[in-house]
Amino acid sequence: MTEHIIDPSTIEAENASRAADLHVDYDTLGERLDRRGVNIDAIKNKVAAFSVAVPSWGVGTGGTRFARFPGKGEPRDIFDKIEDCAVIAQLTQATKTVSLHIPWDKADPNRLKQAASRFNLGFDAMNSNTFSDAKGQLQSYKFGSLSAADKATRDQAIEHNLECIEIGKTIGSKALTVWIGDGSNFPGQVNFADQFGHYLDSMKSIYAALPDDWRLYTEHKMYEPAFYSTVVQDWGTNYLIARELGDKAYCLVDLGHHAPNVNIEMIVSRLAQFGKLGGFHFNDSKYGDDDLDAGSIDPYRLFLVFNELVDAETRYSDFHPAHMLDQSHNVTDPIESLMLSAADVQRAYAQALLVDREALKGAQDGNDALAATQALRLAYRTDVEPILAMARMEQGGAIDPLATYRASGYRAKVAEIRPEIAAGSSGIV
Amino acid sequence: MTEHIIDPSTIEAENASRAADLHVDYDTLGERLDRRGVNIDAIKNKVAAFSVAVPSWGVGTGGTRFARFPGKGEPRDIFDKIEDCAVIAQLTQATKTVSLHIPWDKADPNRLKQAASRFNLGFDAMNSNTFSDAKGQLQSYKFGSLSAADKATRDQAIEHNLECIEIGKTIGSKALTVWIGDGSNFPGQVNFADQFGHYLDSMKSIYAALPDDWRLYTEHKMYEPAFYSTVVQDWGTNYLIARELGDKAYCLVDLGHHAPNVNIEMIVSRLAQFGKLGGFHFNDSKYGDDDLDAGSIDPYRLFLVFNELVDAETRYSDFHPAHMLDQSHNVTDPIESLMLSAADVQRAYAQALLVDREALKGAQDGNDALAATQALRLAYRTDVEPILAMARMEQGGAIDPLATYRASGYRAKVAEIRPEIAAGSSGIV
Amino acid sequence: MTEHIIDPSTIEAENASRAADLHVDYDTLGERLDRRGVNIDAIKNKVAAFSVAVPSWGVGTGGTRFARFPGKGEPRDIFDKIEDCAVIAQLTQATKTVSLHIPWDKADPNRLKQAASRFNLGFDAMNSNTFSDAKGQLQSYKFGSLSAADKATRDQAIEHNLECIEIGKTIGSKALTVWIGDGSNFPGQVNFADQFGHYLDSMKSIYAALPDDWRLYTEHKMYEPAFYSTVVQDWGTNYLIARELGDKAYCLVDLGHHAPNVNIEMIVSRLAQFGKLGGFHFNDSKYGDDDLDAGSIDPYRLFLVFNELVDAETRYSDFHPAHMLDQSHNVTDPIESLMLSAADVQRAYAQALLVDREALKGAQDGNDALAATQALRLAYRTDVEPILAMARMEQGGAIDPLATYRASGYRAKVAEIRPEIAAGSSGIV
Amino acid sequence: MTEHIIDPSTIEAENASRAADLHVDYDTLGERLDRRGVNIDAIKNKVAAFSVAVPSWGVGTGGTRFARFPGKGEPRDIFDKIEDCAVIAQLTQATKTVSLHIPWDKADPNRLKQAASRFNLGFDAMNSNTFSDAKGQLQSYKFGSLSAADKATRDQAIEHNLECIEIGKTIGSKALTVWIGDGSNFPGQVNFADQFGHYLDSMKSIYAALPDDWRLYTEHKMYEPAFYSTVVQDWGTNYLIARELGDKAYCLVDLGHHAPNVNIEMIVSRLAQFGKLGGFHFNDSKYGDDDLDAGSIDPYRLFLVFNELVDAETRYSDFHPAHMLDQSHNVTDPIESLMLSAADVQRAYAQALLVDREALKGAQDGNDALAATQALRLAYRTDVEPILAMARMEQGGAIDPLATYRASGYRAKVAEIRPEIAAGSSGIV
Prior knowledge:
Chains A, B, C, D: GO terms for molecular function: isomerase activity. Chain A is α/β, with parallel strands linked by helices and 429 residues long.
């Protein structure tokens, strides 16, 4: 039986004050959708079945190279983090898995499994880390990891990824995500061809150890922490990697990892068309890899990404990309941000499901650009909040997760147990 | 025997006043390079053997959607254009071929051959045009050409490319360059997957007609004339195309066709490493596809591109990318800009040849980022103008092409023959 | 009495089939807003009073430097254009004025006034043009206009602006908008300080001729048609201009004229705070000055701009910025695009009016970032289409302007009268 | 008498092996410049008189939010930092001052003065820090400092800046530099007008305490650490600040703090023209605020900035902008990077001094864009290294600072005294 961290009576009380309005709104929306030939319950059921993973590191307060300002009740370890994830899952009913980051989340695998299953949580992809040095590590990643010029360093980085696979096997993960910061800060610092050759060789060693029912996700990023060049700098290089490695290798798309102005939804389409779309790290950005809350800056872009995903579902068999939030919460309570971000991802999905694809196709084939874009806008304009809220409520979640979370007093409670972290500056400028 | 448009005595007179200084500068530079273990004559010989093609459209004054301000003596047709190209070739000795654009340059192929061979000019890649409607054309390219939803439109665009190949065969071209403006201006206007499928199918038909000793170059561009999405938007899509088509298909890189901040030299390296670097459209840009003179905005970037090319020459067999200028001359005499741009491309090549590759490799392998980047900077800092000037002079060109061109009075002479074009606004805003 | 181009019975018939649903949707939305303490009729009245100007050039098909693909029934002159504008005004009831562009729209002022008043249209700001050469013009603007190095050229450009003011006085305009393309294509081509000095001097001459009840709007733009530098490149320079000129000088903001990633709503706030926000050219963009339909690419950004405007209304007295659409319609019927764009501007305004400003202020003062941003999102998520449609219907416009326009057959009718324009390429690449 | 950290005999020995070649290169360059009418010694003397400040934080290894990889012999405190700065000054003779950052560099002012004067170093601008929380600080800067909604927080931030002025007075600084990270991460989190109002009020309090012979520098930055909006986001806002505060307030330009593609040299010109150019933080960038070594990514841009400065010197009286390096050295020995960066700043200055300004002006006035840009290119192409090296040698510095530094064994020596810092990950992602 699933344990509940937030007392279900709190949720019930909060829902009680909102249920009547929700029913009215759901019904009137249902009627409007019915006019468009859409069955609201069918949409709601798809939304209810949708889940996005929460990364373990997301529940702690993030920071920048300038400073980090911790909040109250910061999780002390992976077990605290799992509890925070359980709160998110309970209130939103939209985040059924947790994604671990090694070495930070290393612990007895059986204890990990047990901790998660208490709350009926599963484990999503394993994340390795070779962008910083762990204590006691023999070789430094200062000049690269999987693509380093130095063989011993590459071997250490390979070994770390193999360990992540091992841990993942024990706890029931089915994927490894590899993102590295390798690159260079000066023209000439590395030879691009040699460095990429090293990277491919290292990845082949990791791929060879991947269980048959696993997937390997590689993630591209334009820059940061390297500021002149990055090994896996864009989807073009990412595609080359996935193709070189084999059928279990796929490309991961983080919405904040592209050059300014790039059309990301088109990249999604290309990768899907060529069978290499692995999944997403959802977040939003205005400038660079800002890791802001999904949908908080450009919600229409998030919708356009989901428009591609819904389209792809109808085109390609065995199409099931992974979904994960990957955000840095610097000025909000991470639990609050993650709850609303999960909802915003669901919102984009629900809106994409509303697109009249027959009308859209007709307009496209007839070169009726305006009618085509209006087919998208009509779906996007629809306020689907009643659908999301109904899906949550029917599964035991909160109609209003934010209000309910605040009403529960959870943060204050854990702040009593978890020690305050001194505000500190990284002093890195 | 090669005809000369500029009287050789003009060149001789201009060179005479500069030759003594050139010899001093060449010798003192030679001595400095000797200290670094570099033989200046070897560099000069490589520079002398280097050529970059001039596009026929480049010798006319360009413009923007806002206006075009023609200069005096604008070429009236392809034969005038060939004469202008001959002037550039004569003075710079760096531009041995002309690249035609169909339908604008359509003419009796034998007359074309004859016109070029008078000046010992060859023909570079053929360029098709399906980004605008030619007079009398049955189908419009308003909504796309090779990727259009409408089959008749696609067929017409294929047919046009086949015609370009036919013309090229007659005049001795060995390549076809395909750049299209197809894309969309609104989210939803096109289905990305369908559109790209159409494009690939069309290109396969064209590829099938390509002679065995030809190459097919496809060119990517982020945006413009389409402002929401473009079919061949980046090197990732361009690579997919070249791989789908086959061994004669290669990717063309225009330096102004990328997203802001993108590391272009790295794209050059990736394409070379995977055997798909076809060549370049050289120019420079600050904002978008500005088509400014090569090396006029960021000369170090041009050097870094050539640094990759020189590196690639030592790595890959059968590596011989095509070089062409592709610029829009809005405020200068196009002949002057093209002469100096050809020299700036040679300059970057000469500087890249000066890089001490052994020292560079040593620094890279030793993680000595500063020494590595200094190896590039030392080469780039070298003022190689005496090498370029000597290569020109020894082949009959001008030590100072700009001064010599101006002294020749060429522009005033053709302005007497070629009628003035009324300044006109396109009225497109 | 106002003439109607579209037969009112067509509108009535189209509205008849939609009115019942509209009433239901309006009422249910009203009820939801009521729960939030918002009176839907008050919002509707504000929306009904809102108007955005249509630029005369907007009703013709646009183009790029690569090509222009005219549609059927292109307006032949300013009188055709006024008729097209009247259709937009009739169906949307949101565009009460037309903005003229001289010299293209030059005609007998009395005839202009008469033509507009037939349809109860007024005239918005006058737009001068010195970015292209008009026939017969003595000095060319190839190297600049108001900021040119050559005094005769500057004087001619000043004179042209004075003429625009004169025309405007006759027809009842109350503002002059000055946008110039002056800049440079090469480092060193101009001296920045000298060029800006010339510009300021020229503008002072124009300002001196401005009637007391007029406003002078200057518009900044990052680049294009100049590709290295632009005289009025950003809001910083624009602000300096408005301050140097005097109290009647204001800054105009075109949403597509900024560097990538720039926070435009913040610029709006700064200009408003320092009393220099003149108004807007509405459109949307993904890459540069794409001139796409307002709200078609990033509708949330448009909302955030209006959020600033609604906030500013409560802060500053005498705050009444000008609103104009400035778009290029390359693949759609311009009338259709302008109708939907006017609605999308109204939509952003309506959504901004829904923001609970008290709750927002409370969240801001309490550093509750999440609650603050949710206050915006709640307003933005609201589908205000019933409010817009009701405002249109009640004023005699169409519930669904696009469907009604198509049903009216207007385009086909004018295509019979207005001759087809041959598809032509500008040949400028 | 000035103490020397590097044994002068080491410098002499290193110089001895290079002096003969240097004299040859200096003389042949002198001859070439003489042909252009330039006296090489005059240039050398200006270069010798030029100095750029070193920031105290620059001599420590930098990092990113992902990780920091310390090097050997990291300075432990401000006194170690001053010694590292003394090494840079001794070898380059180009960095005569150090810029302190409070609170990190807080120490007994008399000890500070003594430590610096031992090496004949002065103190440049004081830098306050309110972008991170110092230990024991009462109010947190999590939600802003000088612009925070909370008055107590603003007061604390003001107080800190007043303290910086006090320290600066004691040690002989003549300027305060204020850069804050205040902004927001979500639309709506702050009210732009209120926030800027708070900022201006706070700055007025600081300005009021500024001694008469001091300058106040404010620094704009587009983003980071705030990712939706930043209070002082661009030069437009920065100019408003300097104007609001008064005659002692100036704008500081950091080359990496602008939007993509922005023309920075033009901003330099505008600020100089309106009397508000305070100075520079030199570095280079490819993507964002990358803080890479000055001139390492786009050396021509650095030259174009100095081209404006040399031009401004001839135009404006009392023009003496401040120069400081502001870089983050993540993969190099910071001393090495700072030495070469100082030289690259001098290089740009020397090249700018070579521009034939009369010829340039003539080309500009004659609309000869090509000749104008060639006047810049000719100066930029000149390899001025012999001038820089001669200026260094004549003042007791090293012909080749990098080789001499490495030969001195300084880093190994301090690594014996200064304890190794454990590689650590910030764990902030």
